[in-house]
Amino acid sequence: ENNFDKIINSNIHGTINLLYACKKYGFSKFINTGSSSEYGFKKKSMSEYDILEPNSYYAVSKSFQSNFTTYEAQANNLPIVTVRPFHIYGPYEDSRRLIPNLILNLLKNQLPPLVDKKITRDLVYIDDAVKFYLELAIKKNINGHIFNLGSGKKTKLTKIVKEIQKIMNTNINPKWNSMPNRKWDHYEWSANMSKTKKIIKFIPKTNLLTGLKKTVDWFIKNYYLYR
Asked: Using only C-alpha atoms, what is the Rg of the chain?
């Protein structure tokens, strides 16, 4: 929120410039990456057909991206599609995000400040996310479509912390509510994957435990990158 100008320049002007360059030189598929935060706070799993109620400047900018690229696809019959990812995790993830933050702190035998333990995430391992993008790149007849990318399951922070601690063989007592909830923290946060499963036939293959084990192993081996 403190980087309003950067958000506008990157997500709005950047998307417009990139798409216009693609239109000028030709392209086979333009995949716009939106965000699950475009939906705002819902009391059920989030569907591509839901009214958008963005909950931050970032989410507003992502909503513009989705609307702009969808309009271009429909108005000009262009091969443009939008993905709304939920929580993608895995190797190389930014250290400020939840799972890397937990792992890097546990490697120092501590836990970071934590929000309410009932907050949820819909987690998708990076390998599954990459596979989904590759499938979209070759899929025909989806111009202007928007697809959720999630597992379709909500996972509480308590489970995420517990599973990572189990993998790393630590048993530090989490201090829940030692950090105030952020604007994007919510108790109901999961993707309705019906449309994605029907049209793309996509189901993530990596279960949570396997994905977390792979992520922990990678961060331990590549810890030097985050020092």
From this structure: 18
